[in-house]
């Protein structure tokens, strides 16, 4: 399912997995934090996830979390 994500969405998903906040992601990616939130919402919509808990579970189940 992650294949349906765009390149920037994949970057945001990886940073979510690494525990970055929206503000930290924005700084790292040189975009506005509101843009990060849009990407996060799009990721959740595309992956049919309805809460941050589901997004976290997706990250763990797909071994995206940093070790």
Task: Explain how this protein is built.
The chain has helices at residues 7-17, 22-29, 33-46, 52-61. It has 67 residues and is mainly alpha-helical. Helix 1 packs across helix 3 and helix 2 (22-29) crosses helix 3 (33-46).
Instruction: Give the H and E element order.
Output: HHHH
From the N-terminal CA to the C-terminal CA, the straight-line distance is: 22 Å
Low-confidence blocks of residues? none
Shape: globular
Rg from Cα: 11 Å
Output the number of helix runs: 4
Strand content: under 5%
Can you give the mean pLDDT?
90
Give a quick account of the main beta sheet: strands, pairing sense, barrel closure.
none
Could you tell me the number of beta strands? 0
**Relative helix content:** 55-70%
Indicate the structural class.
mainly alpha
Keywords:
globular, 67 residues, mainly alpha, 4 helices, 64% helix
Produce a short descriptive summary.
By secondary structure, the chain is mostly helical. Helix content is 64%, strand content 0%. The protein is built from 4 helices and no strands.
Protein topology:
Layout (H helix, E strand, L loop, with lengths): L6 H11 L4 H8 L3 H14 L5 H10 L6
């Amino acid at each position: 399912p992650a294949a349906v994500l765009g390149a920037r969405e994949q970057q945001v998903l990886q940073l979510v997995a690494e525990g970055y906040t929206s503000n930290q992601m924005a700084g790292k990616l040189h975009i506005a934090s509101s843009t990060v939130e849009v990407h996060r919402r799009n990721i959740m919509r595309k992956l049919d996830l309805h809460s941050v808990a589901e997004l976290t579970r997706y990250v763990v189940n797909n071994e995206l979390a940093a070790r």
